[in-house]
Amino acid sequence: MAYTASPPLLSFMNPQLLKDHSSFNFYSNRLLLPTRLVQQKRSHSVNTRYRIINCRHAKVKESPSANLAAMMREPHKYFDQVIITVRSGDGGHGAILSMPNQKSDSKSQEKNNQGRRKKSLYKRDFDGSLILPMGGHGGDVVIYADESKDSLLEFHKKSRYNAKRGGNVDAMGVLTSQLHDGFAAPTLRIPVPVGTVVKRKRGMFLADLARPGDEILVARGGHGGISLLEMPEHKRKKIMALTTNVVRDDSDKVLVLGQPGEEVSLELILRVVADVGLVGLPNAGKSTLLAAITLAKPDIADYPFTTLMPNLGRLDGDPSLGALKYSSEATLADLPGLIEGAHLGKGLGRNFLRHLRRTRLLVHVVDAAAEDPVKDYRTVKEELRMYNPEYLERPYVVVLNKIDLPQAMDRLSSLIQEISKIGCDEAPSEPEKNSEEVVQALSFKSEQANKHSFGSLNGNRKEKEVDEYPRPLAVVGVSVLKGMRIDEMLREIKRFFWCVD
Ligand SMILES: Nc1nc2c(ncn2[C@@H]2O[C@H](COP(=O)(O)OP(=O)(O)OP(=O)(O)O)[C@@H](O)[C@H]2O)c(=O)[nH]1
């Protein structure tokens, strides 16, 4: 960041003095300078007085290619949040027109009045008044949820979107029967992934595009201007007073020029839409699990943080339950691994935890062959609690993975017992009753709280220990790699969604 003050004031100053004695107040954009530096003689003053110079700070812009390179290197930091600017189109202009053949036109009216029906040369309203052409409406800007999109990355490459302006009335001069309205500009439709939350840049919530096809009008195109007939002022005023659909501005001026479109800066935040969230330490086998039970093809490798962005997969219903339940499906999201201190930014940090917000069930995947699986499990729960304690109130299933390995199989039953005991029998509190709106409202609140303090809890909510939150619905040992006891695990997951016994 570089700061610049107005050159005439600073040019005469010794740069070293400036450096030593000035301080920049970032929040007020003010440069504080001792008054002697600006050569204000205050001989009577003993203390150094500071004079405030308003100045603007100029952000040294990174080149687009540098931004792009950073994005390619670390897409997980960019895929779910972006600021874009959209501008709707200006309205097209109307025109000042004159009547070429007023005499003949009035003659023809007379003739009409006499009963000889002759088609009028001009378009007329039902009351006989002339319909004059209008400038075209400027293009609106609409953002809509599109299933084929899965990230917001592309908006980092192109962050400005302008709708087209409306067409002008295609003439100046004489009114003819061929004159048409200016063309209305098409609506600019911007597709975003399902689950995108649209906010004003300053934070005002606009929409949550949680279902495919959801859309919001974010900038309305300007009205087209009207056309006027050239005629004496007093006559025009009279006509205008009788005409109701004339576009006027605040000061009651008749608008011939099209109105400008509006420009808005928007924040887009993606919150993955998934019913089940897979959480666990890196390498626990979350991606392998997703690949084993859905058609998703996530990257799988034996090094931590293979998963950088949430992967989604769909879990079909059970055919034995009949068409209704078979056709319904649950979406699973495999999240990047969490580590101790993620809430302080360690590992990949915790930002991706926002993608658990819409989930109804969590699946904790624990590497049962690890050194201390119970500690690992507690670590993940603690990180969830630090991010949003409400996550610990949600129903969850614990999957002890890698039981094909002897060290896991040997201690499986004791692990199941120990993990089943962690937590209390308390029923989940209200927001978990699957009311998306309530969950949303809570999430927004907690997001704000989290922004300000890492790990702090909402307002007056009492801080609870991990053990004071509900126990798991089930704890199952599996090997997702070898396909051991997968059915048992699926039954537990499906039981939650489709009440399978
Ligand atoms: N032996 C054995 N290995 C497994 C099993 N499941 C997964 N793995 C291995 O564990 C390693 C990590 O698996 P991933 O599915 O990438 O783990 P992850 O939890 O998604 O890891 P991150 O992407 O880092 O969060 C891979 O080498 C898998 O082959 C299992 O049931 N048994």
Automatic annotation (TrEMBL):
Residues 94-120 are annotated as: Disordered. Keywords: GTP-binding, Nucleotide-binding. This is GTP-binding protein OBGC2. The keyword GTP-binding applies. InterPro entries: G_OBG (IPR031167), GTP-bd (IPR006073), GTP1-OBG_CS (IPR006074), GTP1_OBG_dom (IPR006169), GTP1_OBG_dom_sf (IPR036726), OBG_GTPase (IPR045086), P-loop_NTPase (IPR027417), Small_GTP-bd (IPR005225). GO terms for biological process: ribosome biogenesis. PANTHER family: DEVELOPMENTALLY REGULATED GTP-BINDING PROTEIN-RELATED (PTHR11702), GTP-BINDING PROTEIN OBGC2-RELATED (PTHR11702:SF39).
